[in-house]
Known about the structure:
The chain has a domain at about 10-40. The protein is an alpha+beta fold. Helix content is about 15%, strand content about 20%. The model has no long low-confidence stretch (mean pLDDT about 85).
Amino acid sequence: MVIFPETKERRIKKKVCRKCKTVNPWTAKKCRKCGSTYLRPKKAEKKVK
Ligand SMILES: [Zn+2]
């Protein structure tokens, strides 16, 4: 069984609004909730420990 790296990357491909913390799709240029462009890439989930 091989876990494809691509699958793992897709989970990280999200953007979080710095204003309202809404999670947006990676392709989003604006926050879908407040319309802010202050989006930052979401980092890997905190499961890693
Ligand atoms: Zn927002």
